[in-house]
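[recover] target loaded
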């Protein structure tokens, strides 16, 4: 996001979403923004990381090894139970792995004047939204998180095949599951021309 500490220091509640394909620099951007909010902004920051992703151990880590301390949470309820009410800015990484309650939770914090900076994938390896869960009749997906964000930044990676702008994530192995945690090798950033969905062997 174009970092604007005036926005983060304002009184109004705001939801930010940093999204884009894998390797587009979402974690770097989240860590940078949280560091600036805490350091230069003098704001109280609390960060959460999806517990499902244990690739890099504790805290939010980028592929290049940038780090920001964060508590592991499996779901929105766990975030609620650990929430520091004095924090002014909340960072939540890998928002696509959370659940149907995340949307309302962000809206509730927003009403209290908090800033919520979400980071994650809106689209899966099939270029479809992630299904987060049901709310009555309604299916909540990552597009619903996108829809409620006040500011969103769509980051771009480099296509591994042509070096053009990559907006998509290609899965390089076959699986029927929507969620299979993995990094480089298992997934690649691609443009639309070089995107494909692995076929059943
Ligand atoms: P994300 O959280 O979006 O997966 P990270 O912030 O963890 O991304 O990592 C971004 C870094 O990944 C870049 O700085 C770059 O060094 C590296 N990288 C690896 N593959 C690519 C690619 N195809 N395009 C852009 N960056 C890439």
């Amino acid at each position: 996001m174009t970092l604007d500490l005036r926005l983060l220091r304002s009184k109004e509640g705001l939801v930010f979403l940093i999204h884009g394909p894998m390797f587009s620099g979402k974690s770097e951007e989240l860590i940078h923004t949280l560091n600036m909010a805490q350091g230069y902004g003098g704001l109280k920051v609390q960060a959460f990381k999806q517990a499902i992703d244990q690739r890099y151990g504790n805290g939010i880590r980028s592929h290049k090894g940038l780090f920001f301390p964060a508590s592991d949470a499996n779901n929105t309820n766990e975030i609620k139970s650990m929430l520091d009410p004095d924090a002014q800015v909340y960072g939540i990484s890998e928002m696509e792995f959370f659940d149907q309650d995340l949307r309302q939770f962000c809206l509730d914090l927003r009403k209290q004047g908090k800033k919520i900076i979400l980071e994650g994938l809106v689209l899966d390896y099939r270029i479809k939204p992630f299904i987060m869960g049901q709310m009555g009749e309604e299916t909540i997906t990552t597009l619903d998180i996108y829809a409620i964000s006040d500011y969103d930044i769509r980051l771009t990676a480099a296509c591994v095949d042509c070096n053009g702008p990559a907006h998509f994530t290609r899965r390089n192995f076959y699986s029927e599951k929507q969620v299979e945690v993995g990094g480089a090798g298992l997934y690649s950033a691609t443009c639309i021309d070089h995107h494909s969905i692995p076929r059943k062997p």
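[recover] notes: Residues 19 and 154 are 5 Å apart (CA to CA).
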